[in-house]
C-alpha cells in the first residue's frame, strides 16, 4: 500500500459500476502487500484510512449528504471485491456496512435521518460489540440517560472505528437496547487480545465497557422508553450472514487467481508420467482441477447473487415485510453461506495440488486464503445452516429469528 489514496481518487463514483471499479482499485492496492501486513499484524489504521479516502465507507449513505446512495446488492459485490485484495479488510468493510444500516433496521425515522446524515458527512467508520454468546452488557437508568457496563469477547473493528454499536439489556427487564457511541472514550477499553490463525487484521479482540452513557433519545427504536418492534428489525442476521458469504467468495476468488498465476509462471510439469507435457498448464489434472474449482466458485457466486436479490426485495418495503418473506430470504442466505464456506475451503486447500510443493513456501503466502476462510467460517456452525435449508426443503419451515438465524 505505497500509493497515496488522496492522490489516486479525486472524484466520487456515482453508479454501481463505478463503485465496483473503485472497490477493485482498493483491492489492487491491498493485495500488493496483504501477506506482509498479515504477518506483521499491525492495527489497520492505514487500511481504514484507505477505505475512507476511496469513499467506500459512504457507499450506502444518502446522496444528499455525500454518500453513494447504493443498495445492498452493490454493497455485497464491493465486499467481495475488497475481500479479494485482503480478507481482513473485506470483513471490516462488511461489518461497517451492517452497523451503518443498523439504524434503519431498528431506529425511528428521526434517528435514521440523524445517524445517516452525520455518519455520511463525517465518514464514520463503524465497529460493533454485539457478541450474543457473551453475557449481555448491563444497562442501568440514570434519569434521561442509559449507562452501559460489561464485557464482550469480540468487538470487530471497534479499535479502528469512529463509533461502536453497543447492545445490552436494561437491568431488571428483558428489553434489549442498541446504541451508537464514540469508540474512543475512557469507558471503552480494548483488550488487544486478537491473535488468531486468520483474519489477523480485523481487530476482533475483546472490549470492556465501563460507565458508557447514552441519552435515552439515542436508544435505537425506542419512543417514550418503549421499543416499537417490526419484522424488519430481525433482518440483521440474514444481512450479515450474506456479508460472510461474500467475504468467503472474495477470498476464494483471490486464492484461485493467485494460484493460477503461480501455476502459469512457476509450477513445473511432472516428468515421471507416460504423457510428459512441456508446461504444467498443459497437464490434464491441472486443467481439470482449475475447471472444477472455477465452476464451483461461479455457482456459489450465482447463489449469493440470488440471495442478495431477496434481501433487496425485503429492503424495498421494510414496514410491510412479512415473517414468511423474511424467512424465505434467510433460507436462501443460509444456502449461499454454506456453499461459500464449502467452496472457499476447498479452493483454499486444493490450489496446492496444482501449484506444487514449492508453493508451500512462506514467501509465497498461499496459505493466507485458507487460514482466513477457516478462521471466520467458525463464527457459527455451518451444519445448522444446512439444517435450516433442510427444514425448508423437507417441511416448508422457515427459521425462527434468533441472534444467528
From TrEMBL:
<feature type="domain" description="Acyl-CoA dehydrogenase/oxidase N-terminal">
    <location>
        <begin position="31"/>
        <end position="112"/>
    </location>
</feature>
<dbReference type="GO" id="GO:0050660">
    <property type="term" value="F:flavin adenine dinucleotide binding"/>
</dbReference>
<dbReference type="InterPro" id="IPR013107">
    <property type="entry name" value="Acyl-CoA_DH_C"/>
</dbReference>
<dbReference type="InterPro" id="IPR036250">
    <property type="entry name" value="AcylCo_DH-like_C"/>
</dbReference>
<dbReference type="Pfam" id="PF02771">
    <property type="entry name" value="Acyl-CoA_dh_N"/>
</dbReference>
<dbReference type="InterPro" id="IPR046373">
    <property type="entry name" value="Acyl-CoA_Oxase/DH_mid-dom_sf"/>
</dbReference>
<keyword id="KW-0560">Oxidoreductase</keyword>
<dbReference type="InterPro" id="IPR009100">
    <property type="entry name" value="AcylCoA_DH/oxidase_NM_dom_sf"/>
</dbReference>
<dbReference type="InterPro" id="IPR037069">
    <property type="entry name" value="AcylCoA_DH/ox_N_sf"/>
</dbReference>
<dbReference type="GO" id="GO:0006552">
    <property type="term" value="P:L-leucine catabolic process"/>
</dbReference>
<dbReference type="GO" id="GO:0008470">
    <property type="term" value="F:3-methylbutanoyl-CoA dehydrogenase activity"/>
</dbReference>
<feature type="domain" description="Acyl-CoA dehydrogenase C-terminal">
    <location>
        <begin position="242"/>
        <end position="379"/>
    </location>
</feature>
<keyword id="KW-0285">Flavoprotein</keyword>
<dbReference type="Pfam" id="PF08028">
    <property type="entry name" value="Acyl-CoA_dh_2"/>
</dbReference>
<dbReference type="InterPro" id="IPR013786">
    <property type="entry name" value="AcylCoA_DH/ox_N"/>
</dbReference>
<protein>
    <submittedName>
        <fullName>Alkylation response protein AidB-like acyl-CoA dehydrogenase</fullName>
    </submittedName>
</protein>
